[in-house]
Amino acid sequence: MAHYALLDENNIVVEVITGKDEGGSTDWELYYGGLRGMTCKRTSYNSSAGQHSNGGVCFRKNYAGIGYTYDETRDAFIPPKPYASWVLSESTCCWQAPTAMPDDGQIHVWNESITNWEVIS
């Protein structure tokens, strides 16, 4: 089975469906998009942060989720931006904090007002 993301007029994912695997003479993206009157793009649940979970070829950087944006130029699904200060990694099409989370064994949360990590007590 294959998965397909249905996009609104702003290329935002509004639904992800299970459908037919690609192959044969049918273009399933066009078929499913035509049924809904929307743009449809195939997505792979094996793709995350630019990596394939089974060592295969990554497909469109990330598995599409509702609220993700499909970027035509990058041919990638990009999750919603969590904070204004975070920047997009071109290699993963995921958002990254401007400073790395400390690796000190403590639990941290991002504090956008100070644009840094804070320890949870």
Structure report:
The protein has 121 residues and is mainly β. The protein has 2 domains: 1-80, no CATH class; 82-121, no CATH class. It is built from 1 helix and 11 strands. The chain has a 3-stranded antiparallel beta sheet. A two-stranded antiparallel sheet has the order 4-5. It has a two-stranded antiparallel sheet with strand order 6-7. The radius of gyration is 17 Å and the shape is elongated. The relative contact order is 0.15.
Question: Which structural traits does this protein have?
Answer:
2 domains; 1 helix; mainly beta; single chain; 121 residues
Sum this structure up briefly.
This protein has 121 residues and is mainly β. The chain contains 1 helix and 11 strands, in the order ββαβββββββββ. The protein has 2 domains: 80 residues, no CATH class; 40 residues, no CATH class.
